[in-house]
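Hi R.,

Here are the chain sequences for the assembly we discussed:
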Amino acid sequence: MSNSQIIVGLEIGTSKVCVAVGEVSENQVVNIIGLGQAKSRGVRKGEIIDVALAEEDVRNAIVEAEQVADVEIRSVFLGVTGSHIRGFNNTGVHPVVSADREITTSDIQDVIKNAKAINLPTDHSVVHVIRQHFRVDGQDGVLNPEGMLGAKIEVDVHVVSGRYNRLQNPIRLVNGLHLEVDNISSCALASSLAILSPEQKELGTLVIDLGAGVTEYAVYSAGVIKHTGVLAVGGDHVSNDLAYGLKVPLARAEQLKIDHGSAVIDPEAGDREIDLSNDSLIPGRQVNLGHMQKIMSMRLQETFELIARDIGQAGLIEYLRAGVVLCGGGARIPHITRLAREVFNLPVAIGRASTVSGIKNALDEPEFATPVGLIKFGVFQSQANPRRAGFGRAIRRQVAALFGR
Amino acid sequence: MKNSTKPAPNANPVIRLLGLGEAGVKLVETLAMIGPGGIETYSLDTDNRSLARCHQSQAFLLGQAIPCGLGTGGDSALARAAVESDSEQLAGIVRGADLVFIVAGMGGGTGTGAASFLANLAKEAGALVVGVAATPFDCEGIRRCNQASGGVRDLKQVADAVFHFPNQNVVLMEGANVSLHEALDIANRHLCEAVLGVSRMLLDSGMLNVSFGDLQAALRGRHSLGSVVHVDASGDDRAAAAVRKLLTHPAALGGEALQEASTLLVHLSGENITMAEIVAVTDAIGSHVTKANLVVGASEPGSDGAGLQVTVVIAHTAKLAEPGQEQAKVHPDQTGQASGLGFSGSFSVPDTGSYLDLGKGAGGTSRGSFAYTPPAPTADALTPECREDLIRVAAKEETNRKKRQKIVQEMLPLEIVSKGRFEKSEPTIHQGEDLDQPTYIRRGAVLN
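And here is the predicted structure of the full complex:
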């Protein structure tokens, strides 16, 4: 135990707050040793709307995770999301000035610094700057240019940014529970870290996290992240559509979605009626299964179409040779892969957190991709900033640098 | 009634027809060939090639020094420079004319750039200037169309009236399947009709004459965007057919143009015109006219067979073009009657040709809801452009005032779509669509 390190991922989602506790052994193997969940009540569309409720839910989830894992949680890696988060690509350029034209570490640092100098709106701050590829004198696809000769070095980066205040809300909430935030990560990035194998990243994959409040997506190609996006439409919208269309209360609509939902319209469903007679609120009501499936299918299809359009505009559809991977609670909707296959015209699979070991429950369920991914994110971070006495402090410094205004 | 303008008994007004630019030259050539005698035709262009085809009219090369007979290539500024350099010779051409037609195809270089300058020269020479302008098809590109409408506007500010025929009207009339050759042919015919109709009205010796004075009274100083509708019909029921054609003519806008006109000159020409026919035509027009001064003429053509030809010159009121101050100088209530029949050609339809007359006696009673504050009389001294600006500003204020008076009940949507739990959250707007609303409603799917 003394040589292992505990890394905790916390996702404050729209439908549930989820905590995963990971134990990282000496040789960097991640083992999930605890999970904690609580129903989320203070979050809408991925963002906190009621701090008191959200705080209570987070506390419950943390307590549960502590009990299961039998550890004390002091710091977490926090997943952030919301419609304000956007991803874009940027390029930094730096001329190599040394006489022998050899690219040194400082040249690389300079070019990355240039790429980070982004003209963001004043209320935005950067969440991630992810290095993609270097280019040396126009030679593309250089992974590490150090020691190469060249006159000009360029780097492509993917930048994820969000509104400063809205990013601060969950951080402040966690701090209020006397927990440290080691770092924050966008949920799309975390999910993809959990479920994608290096081959999938290399071949090109689209990861779609179908959450309750938001749908996030990330495109990997040639081993690096190419595109991310957030659509503030999720499972809540499906329930809301059903409640409106079938004229049933929202909670009942949610239950109907779970019990009888389908992403595609079953041609025989049109004749079937679902009896709601055992519901005390609406005795003797029946709803048509065909209508229900039509409402659901149209919403989900639209969501996929919006993503497909965005990725098509980014020119990345052709690069998705490993297809589409779905995760999040929405991935449990029956026939969702069939619908996605029809929209994207690509092979579609449900993502599993296959790159870590531990509690089977945590790995098999697509909902847990984000917290598990946050643990992997934490592992990468601690590798990049090797743990010494002040590991936590080093990370804290980073967070402070990000948000310390 | 008293005639305020007396045409000399045996002298026709001097009509000069100036074709500008390639389209104008072509039209003038055609008109010179088929038109009635007594019209002097001139072809003016910056392009030698186009002038080389002129045989009927007198050719004049514009801008010998600048484009050197090579055309302007759509550059209206170059055309303007060319025509300015030749202003002395051009002034000679328009000198002594009573009526000058300036025929130009707008949108190119020469027609667009030179027409307004030429109109100004003619105006200074004391002639009544009528522009006849064709504007290009929509498909000829936005730049050309913009240039054309700019050209028409410039010409309108100088000329007394502009008869304007958008080529696109041919497509509206004949459908999109009309061949290009046919379309151009029809457009040319309409423009020719405008010139021929007016000149025939003035030159044909008639039983009921529409004189130059009438035309002058209707158009002088109005800077109106008028139109000429010319139709012919034959057969037993030729009057009814002519009326039908007249009202369906694109320039008449289904009778709307007649309603908004301040003065209408109606001229019938045909063999053995009966009183019934005159009455039928004038009644039909009169029923569409609310406040215009209607002047009717009739003549017997020399050769044109049994058909009935009806020409209507429509001069618009302030709505489409502002009535000039000069209009007050020539009171619209006059007949052009010069024949010895003792029959007044003027139908005194309620007259509000000019709002300056509003306060004067009986005219004021028939003005209906027309509420326009007369501008200060010193506006006489203003340039036409300045005046137009002022009137535009006044018109804007007018609409504002109306807006304030009129409370419009907005149409409410039939079904108010509730956003349920997202009612109070930040809306998810994606490319103008509110994604919080159920997809099936936005896409119009029906649940039965």
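The mean pLDDT of chain A is 87. Chain A is about 35% helix and 30% strand.

Let me know if anything looks off.

Best,
T.
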